[in-house]
Amino acid sequence: MTDRPLPVIDSDSQPYWEATARHELRLPFCLDCDKSFFMPRVLCPRCHGDRVEWRAASGTGVIYSYTVARRPAGLAFAARVPYVVALIDLDEGVRLLSQVITDDVAAVRIGQRVHVDFEDVAEGLALPVFRIVSG
Amino acid sequence: MPSMSREPVIVGVADAPLANGVLASGGNALSVQAQAAKAALAQAGLRLGDVDGLLTAGAWGVPGPGVLPTLSLSEYLGIRPRFADSTNIGGSSFEAHVSHAAMAIEQDYCHVALITYGSTQKSERNRTLAGRPPLLTMQYETPYGLLAPVGAYALAAMRHMHDYGTTSEQLAQIAVAAREWALLNPAATMRAPITVDDVLASTMISDPLHLLDCCLVTDGGGAVVMTSAERARDLPVRPIHVRGYAESHTHWTIASMPDLTLTTAADTGPRAMAMAGVRREEIDVVEIYDSFTITVLLTLEALGFCGRGEGGAFVSGSRLLPGGEFPMNTNGGGLSYAHPGMYGIFLIIEAVRQLRGEAGARQVTDARVALVNGTGGTLSSTATCILTRE
């Protein structure tokens, strides 16, 4: 697992990854259009305003789409096959790519509610992943 | 509007012979482009010394000479372009190159434009499913192990199935049709018939896409030569006219795609057709980038050949087969002819051969108008060209 590709943190992403390291999901929020956006950047991709702040996210959302990787995206993922990579629509109205962590890849469906969890992948670095909300 | 004399035309096309998906006579990414260029120019009675516009895109020589590809290629070819364009928007780059060369010719900025592509990815066995390095925009996706690029297309296919009831059987029809066309093309890499059941029984790669929903991994090289209609009057070849063109792109990371099942072909298709003054029903042959079966289905919908969500029904039955009412990907496409990493130039080459009437057993009767649509990246970019015989 040590050769898993890990984010190369930069000035845009530092607040994001610092939060996930604390197991908090935070999103950039545009003060001009009053909405969150993703990925982090210096200008809002909708209105191009530059008044952006970081806000805590609910950590809940739904699976917009998913796929089951039957082969690994490089050796680092070989032990995980099969694994679920999904587009998650967070309740804040942003979409991000992540994994859905499950023992039963065949039970995953579009529209299922999910909540964030965190996978510690290196010292001081955690990736947000999602789990299906049971019931 | 350009004067009629500076109207852009295609006067030469060539692709490198393959054997079992690798360059038949060996070579590297530069040599295959040089040989294809020489062959395409020779069709028009032109020589490399006549070339003053050079357009290319590729993945060769990076990092290294491929970082500045037109510099390295012009050096290798021994030419001195006054116009260069290394626009890289993925596999659709070459349709964009046709557009850019057309504008340069219309503006008298260059007179003979050479568009090339070369790849030895199969010979070098350097193709992997791993994502891009996790820098900048990719840092939010690569760590999750989405197979590149098939995983993003699988996400689109899964959503299309959810929204519209599209089935794996319907997607498989696209692969079967490509193979049926390949059976008519001696140059195609895959020349054994397949059935829908064969596609469904092939290895699942990234649900819901099977191995046979995916394009081939081959070497390849190609070249397209463009000039003005005026210059073409003196050349020993039937010129093919570039009547309309358009390009657009929106994203590379899949989470940023504005609508997961609608490509920018919904924009570039109508714009190119409007520029050409061509209606959909006037198009005789269609060459659509088939990186995956779902790419074709989404593109048919985006171009308006069927309604949104109707792609599954549209591709079913015999419509796409040789002799059917919708001749498409007539060389066998990326699914069965060849797919050397970026396929867009081969769409143009096949469209020109059809419009010239040179396609042999796979010739579409009286093909006068062709639509070519490239898709690049992860459903990121499209570029559409309308080519005509007259």
Keywords:
heterodimer, A: mainly beta, three-stranded antiparallel sheet, 6% helix, B: 390 residues, nine-stranded mixed sheet, 13 helices, globular
Order of helices and strands of chain A: HEEEEEEEE
Largest sheet features of chain A: 5 strands, antiparallel
Return the structural class of chain A.
mainly beta
Instruction: Please bin the fraction of helical residues of chain A.
Output: under 10%
Give the helices and strands of chain B as they follow along the chain.
EEEHEHEHEHHHHEEEHEHEHHHHEE
Give the radius of gyration of chain B: 19 Å
Compute the separation of the termini of chain A in Å.
32 Å
Low-confidence stretches of chain B: none
- Strand residue percentage of chain B: 15-25%
Shape of chain A: globular
What is the number of helical segments of chain B per DSSP (H or I, 4+ residues)? 13
Q: Going across the major beta sheet of chain B, what is the strand order?
A: 5-4-6-9-1-10-13-12-11
Q: Given the helix and strand composition of chain B, which structural class is it?
A: alpha+beta
Output mean pLDDT of chain B.
97
